[in-house]
Amino acid sequence: MMRNTLGTLGARTAFAIAIVLASLMPAKADDYLLGSQDKLRIRVVEWQTVEGAFREWTAISGEYMIDSAGRLSVPFVGEMEAGGLTTAEISKAISDTLQQSFGLSDKPQASVEIATYRPFYINGDVQAPGQYAFVPGITVLKAVSLAGGQRRLEGARIERDFINARGQHAIASQDRVRLLVRRARLEAEAKGEEGFAVAEELEGLARVSSIMADEMSILTARNRKLTLQLDVLNDLRDLLQREVTALEQKSVTQQRQIDLARRELSDVDSLAQKGLVVNTRVLGIERTIADMEGKQLDLETSMLRARQEISKTEQEIIGLRNNIEAEVAQERQKTEAELDEATLRQEMYAGLLSEAVSFASTLPGVLGGEPDTTFELTRVVDGVTQQISAGENTPVLPGDIISVRTTLKTAPGLPG
Fold first, then answer.
1. Any idea what the Cα angle at residue 243 is, between residues 241 and 244, rounded to 5°?
2. 286 with 260, same domain?
3. What gap in Å lies between CA 198 and CA 184, rounded to an integer?
4. Integer distance in angstroms from the first to the last C-alpha of the chain?
5. Hey, what long-range contacts does 20-23 have (CB within 8 A, 24 or more apart)?
6. Are both 336 and 357 inside the same structural domain?
7. I need a labelling partner for 240 at 20 to 30 A (CA). Which of 19, 146, 229, 293 fits?
C-alpha cells in the first residue's frame, strides 16, 4: 500500500526542513505547548485523486508518547523534537515530511490531538499528595479537591469540609456547564444546523466561550465530514445516471438498426424465393441481425448493472444519514444522563456547603473562622524552574507541582 520509502538520510533531511518551517510559524498564545509524558493521538489520511477517495495510513495512525527528552518517534517520519511545539505544528511537520519523503502529489493530512496530558503533582497539607492526571481548566482549588482536600489539622475539620465541598461544587458546576453546551450542540446537529446558542443562564459564565468554541469545532468538523461523504455519493449517483441515459440512447439507435435490417431481410427473402437473389445474401443479413441483437442485449445488461449501482448508492446515502442520526441520538441520551448526574452532585455539594457554614456559625471564635492556606506552583518555563505564588483560582498546567501549606489562625481571646 505504501510507496517505496526514501533512504534514512533523505527522510531525516526532509523532516528537519519541515520542523524548521513549522517552528517559524507563529503559534497562538493560548496554544498548549507539548512536553514529556504527553500522549498524542495521530491519524493520517491521504486523498487519492485518481481513485476519488480517502486512504488512511494505518501504519502511522495510533497513540504515541513524548519521551523524557521531549522527542516523538513516528513511523516513516522518525524522531522529531516535540517539546515546546503545538499539535498544529506537529501535524504540519508530519504532513510535510511524508509528502517530501514519498514524493506525493497530494499532501497527506495529519490530525494530531492530545490523548492524555502529562500529569501534575501536589504535596503538602492535602489528604492524598502525589501524581494526578491533568484535565483542561483545572485550578488549584480543584486540584486540592482531587487530592482529597486539605489535610485535617487540629480543630480544622469544619474548614477542611468546607473547602472540599466548595471544590467539588465547583467541579460539578463546571461539568454541568460543559454538558449544557454539548447538549445545545447535539440538538443543533440533529436539526442539521451549522451553529447553536446556549441558554441565557450560561451567558457570561467563566470558560463558556472556550467550551462553545470547542463544541463548535466539533459541529463544524462533523458537518464537513458528512457533507463530503454525501457529495461523493451524490456525484457517483449522478455519474451512473448519465451512464444509464447514454446507454438508453445507444439502445434506441441499435433497435432502429435491427428494425431496418429485418425489413431488408424480409425484402431479400421474397426475392430469394423467386430466385432473383442468392441465399448467401439472406444468410449474411441474418448474421448481421444476430450480431446487432447480441449488442442490444449487452446494452440492456449494462443498463441493468448501472441501475443496480444507483440503487445501491441511494441506499448508502440513506444508511449514512441514518447512522449519523443514531449516533447523535446516542450521544444526546448519554449527555442527558451525565447532565442529570452533574446536577445532582452540584445540589448535593451546595447542601454540604450550607451545612458547613451553618455549623461553623454555632462555634464562634473557632480558629478565627478558617485556616490560613497558601499555595505555591513550581513550574518550568522555557527550561527555567520558577516558583509562583498562587491562589485558589490559579490555573494549573501539566507538569506543575502544587505545594499546599496551611496554618491555623488564633481566635480572639485564645492563646496564640
1. 65
2. yes
3. 6
4. 77
5. 21/92, 21/93, 21/96, 22/85, 22/89, 22/90, 22/92, 22/93, 22/96, 23/85, 23/89
6. yes
7. 293
Confidence of residue 157 (pLDDT cuts 50, 70, 90): low
Rounded Cα distance between 250 and 44, Å, is 44
Q: Which domain holds residue 191?
A: 157-362
Name residue 401's beta-bridge partners: 121, 378
With 50 as the cut, is the pLDDT of residue 205 above it?
yes
For 158-165, the CB contacts below 8 A with 24+ separation are 158/356, 158/359, 158/360, 158/363, 158/366, 159/367, 159/370, 159/371, 160/371, 161/352, 161/356, 162/353, 162/356, 162/357, 162/360, 162/370, 163/370, 163/373, 165/349, 165/352, 165/353, 165/356
311 within some domain: yes
pLDDT digits (tens, 9 = 90+) for 122-145: 998 888 999 998 888 899 999 999
Q: Count Cα atoms within 13 angstroms, Cβ side, for 415.
A: 0
β-strand partners of 373: 406
33: Cβ–Cβ under 8 A, 6 or more apart, which residues? 27, 83, 84, 85, 86
Compute CA distances 78 → 13, 59, 72, 98, whole Å.
Answer: 11, 13, 8, 11
286 CB-side CA count, 13 A = 8
Grid cell of 216 as nine digits: 463548535
Angle, alpha carbons 342-345-347 (nearest 5°): 110
